[in-house]
Amino acid sequence: MNNSSSMRIAIVGGGPAGLTLARILQNYNVTCTVFELDKTPDRRDQGGSIDLHRNGGQQALREAGLLEEFRRVARPEGEALKLIKYDGTVVLDENVAGSRRPEEHADRPEVDRTKLRQLLLDSLQPNTVIWDKKLVSVAASTSIPGRYDLHFQDSVEEGFDLVVGADGAWSRVRNFLTEQKPSYSGVTGIELWALEVDKRHQWLGEFVGAGSCFMFDEGRAIQCQRDGENRIRVYVGVRQPEDWINTCGIDWASPEEAKKALLDRYFNDCAPDLKRAVLDANDQLIPRQMWMLPIGMRWETHPGVTLVGDAAHLMTPFAGVGVNLAMLDAMDLAKAVIGCAGDASRLPDAIRQYEEVMWERAEQNARKTEKGLIGHFSADGIDEMARRLQGR
Ligand SMILES: Cc1cc2nc3c(=O)[nH]c(=O)nc-3n(C[C@H](O)[C@H](O)[C@H](O)COP(=O)(O)OP(=O)(O)OC[C@H]3O[C@@H](n4cnc5c(N)ncnc54)[C@H](O)[C@@H]3O)c2cc1C
């Protein structure tokens, strides 16, 4: 279908949402430019493995014509889950022969974020992404009424009909639409890395299995996850106040001492294997607060500016839906823009229709995520998850 467009479209942010949107638009000959803060594609660690759901990220990739390419880099074995209580009792282990979930429920293969980003980047026309462009603010155009200018740290790009904020948790585009900001979720995570698992962390590799190993308990959690680069990330979560990282007295600059203090204070009664998993992951330590936008957040629709993904509905990762929603948003917005057939006067209606669907879906998933957050940090959370998986 030829839908050659005279609209000027800017997508701010080259994460899963922004790149999926660009790809689907280009499939329909709609021209767009992605402005990305990273200096180069491999400048920054993109984070751990993510699972793309059949009715989520995979659906968007099908629309983008990239499902086959995705299957080549996906890791279905990464779905294997092991659930363990604080005292070491294993309540579920899908690594054990015969305990994998039935094929029809094995619909969420893992993929490394770097591989997903590369797959999307490779699918775009040359020079679609302009790197090293940090957006500071969006403003109504001073020269062309009804259009928008992008103010970057080092330049101004003028005259866009549509600006899409795909710029994640701390979106600058969002500031144009609403004053709402993320708030602290009540949980802080300490991210630990184990590199070269096969060579240097064999015990941890066997303990975790092919995918993920989770322990949830009242106010605390340990989550270990493999990626396809022979690495395991261990996330130690604690329910603590917002300023805890700085006021708890743990010296994060001395990782080994910090981990011992963390274990002594919050995980002392846990099984030795769980503590060993934390101590064994000794290649990197990064403390992170977890943030979220208000559940059901909406804003007054604006004719030429909108948001996709975390910029629109940041949630904690405790339902594992964020990237899937981001890519569905991208798919829906792309369809809405393509439907305008290059006529910018149709954009306001298209944006309104997209936002209604996106807001509703985001609210439902934010509620699910809130339940997940409570479950991950409650005493019966692990049994509850095991029951749910076994029920399937
Ligand atoms: C620990 C953890 C585990 C997770 N696990 C899962 C999971 O298993 N499954 C799942 O579905 N989701 C998961 N998520 C959530 C998922 O990572 C996000 O929902 C997803 O990355 C959102 O995609 P996005 O494209 O909207 O934003 P992002 O991935 O944040 O991308 C935003 C992009 O915008 C760029 N940018 C930011 N600011 C600017 C600026 N000012 N100017 C220009 N560019 C800018 C950034 O560099 C980045 O490239 C997890 C999140 C965390 C923190």
From TrEMBL:
InterPro entries: FAD-bd, FAD/NAD-bd_sf, TetX_monooxygenase. Residues 8-365 form the FAD-binding domain. Signal peptide: none annotated. One of its GO terms (molecular function) is monooxygenase activity. The keyword Oxidoreductase applies. Keywords: FAD, Flavoprotein, Monooxygenase, Oxidoreductase. This is FAD-binding domain-containing protein.
